[in-house]
Write a structure and sequence with these properties.
Elements lengths: L1 H40 L3 H4 L14 H9 L4 H32 L5 H11 L8 H10 L6 H25 L3 H9 L4 H12 L1 H16 L3 H6 L8 H6 L13 H22 L1 H13 L1
Helix pairs in contact: 1-13, 3-13, 4-7, 4-10, 7-10, 7-14, 8-9, 10-13, 10-14
Length: 290
């Protein structure tokens, strides 16, 4: 019996070692491109095109960042502001609409409720870009092309169905006894939603906000299709715009500039996720539990 326990412990220990090795390899594969991007953004043109390139830069040279904000013909400061505006509008609309819609689909009885919800589920299996031509025509008819608000509304329409499904599951996980108690105390529908349901569904709302922010901040296809005026470009679009060849005296490599632009684009999303990651996981658990 003692030998069997020792064998089992040894087997479990070997499995844990194998799992740790596997996770370490996967972490390296995942993190290395980000690490390479960071290092390349601080390299000079000589370091990037050296015959014996190194992973780490010889020093923190900010020439690529200086080119983006001071020398480039493209206004990266305006692109950052445009991305912030589009993301904030999208997040605000999606959070409000998904909270109200999720509560309605989970608690309110109305005609064709289940059919409408099943239709939303079916729409999730349609590729987002399948109707991009029709969307382009609709946006043109509504005079919303080359508009940051129009882009935000389009992104809202793309992310809202999945957010409604998530919030519906979150509200279904909340016991109905809490609502009954609030109604007995004389709470109105608005008071019930604002003071009882929304605080309990806070984790789900955080998850919806994070998903909406990441989707809108990193969107390229819709922004590139709907925006044609350079002053309206968002960050993902700006990165793909050709960075003009510069004189050798500037000592700027296009590859290094692209890496600097990619890092600037990803940094706000990374910081935002790190800041609320605990609430993000809490919201994910609430959605799965529902």
């Amino acid at each position: 019996m003692g030998k069997f326990k020792l064998f089992r412990r040894g087997e479990i220990f070997r499995q844990q070692i194998i799992m740790c090795i596997f996770l370490t390899i996967m972490a390296i594969i995942t993190v290395f491109p980000i690490f390479w991007t960071i290092c390349s953004s601080f390299k000079t043109i000589q370091e990037i095109y050296s015959l014996n390139p190194s992973i780490l830069p010889k020093g923190f040279n900010f020439i690529n960042y200086k080119f983006l904000f001071e020398t480039s013909v493209i206004d990266y400061k305006m692109a950052i502001l445009n991305s912030i505006v589009v993301s904030l509008i999208t997040v605000a609309i999606v959070v409000v609409c998904s909270a109200l819609g999720g509560y309605g689909f989970s608690r309110v009885q109305f005609n064709y409720r289940d059919r409408i919800f099943n239709l939303l589920i079916m729409l999730q299996f349609v590729p987002l870009t399948a109707g991009i031509i029709a969307q382009w025509q609709i946006m043109s008819l509504l005079k919303l092309r080359d508009s940051l608000i129009g882009l935000a509304l389009l992104l809202t329409a793309m992310i809202l169905p999945s957010s409604l499904m998530l919030m519906r599951q979150v509200f279904l996980s909340i016991p109905t006894e809490l609502e009954d108690a609030a109604k007995i105390d004389g709470a109105s529908t608005f008071q019930l939603l604002w003071h009882v349901m929304l605080p309990l569904a806070g984790g789900g709302l955080i998850l919806v906000a994070v998903n909406s922010f990441l989707f809108s901040w990193g969107d390229f296809i819709y922004a590139r299709t709907m925006l044609t005026i350079p002053s309206k470009y968002t960050l993902p679009v700006i990165i793909t715009v050709s960075i003009p060849t510069t004189p050798a005296t500037l000592r700027v490599a296009t590859y290094g500039v692209y890496n600097a632009a990619a890092l600037i684009t990803a940094l706000p999303a990374i910081i935002f996720f790190i800041a609320i990651q605990n609430r993000f996981y809490e919201g994910a658990r609430e959605g799965l539990k529902g």
